[in-house]
Amino acid sequence: MHITLPQRLFVGFSLAKPQIKQISMIQLELAPFLNTTARPVNLHNLHMTLGFLGQVDPTSYLQLLNEIEAMPKIQFSQNLTCHTFWPLAKLVCLAGQATEPLTTMARTIIEIAERNNFYISQKKYTPHVSVFRHVNMPPLAKLRCTTKLQLEPTHLHLYQSSNHSHQVNYSILASWPLTQ
Q1: What's the pTM value of the predicted model, to 2 decimals?
Q2: Is the dihedral of CA 173, 99, 20, 95 positive or negative?
Q3: pLDDT of 1-11, one tens digit each?
């Protein structure tokens, strides 16, 4: 797919149906403990982020596709074992300690972003799945609960983030298989 206007893009991994179902149950368990403006992430938007790129123009888009195509995309298994609250983003996430293949891919995405003047996060990469948005300070005791969500993605995806009627939607623009 080719883009004609600048698009808000990020790279990540889709989730399998069993993980989506597990996250849905976690959302149901956490919802009563969060503020009334907190919103669960739509199930069709659930993903594990590898890197946010920000606004990408049509010329840079083709370069981005070529660079992602050329990068190593290694199969991995990732556990997300804790709930965490990110106050600046107002997110509740499931997070974990990055495995080596995932750390390597995250580093490569940062290098691609640097070469192309895309957005670069100043925070250390943390594998995560956002489960709630618009969260004010949640009860920390409830967030100390742990979970064990094991992800074994098969593809790396380039996503487009768009807003429609005050709802965020993530669309996959390109996909690459992970290899051993």
Answers
A1: 0.89
A2: negative
A3: 666 677 889 99
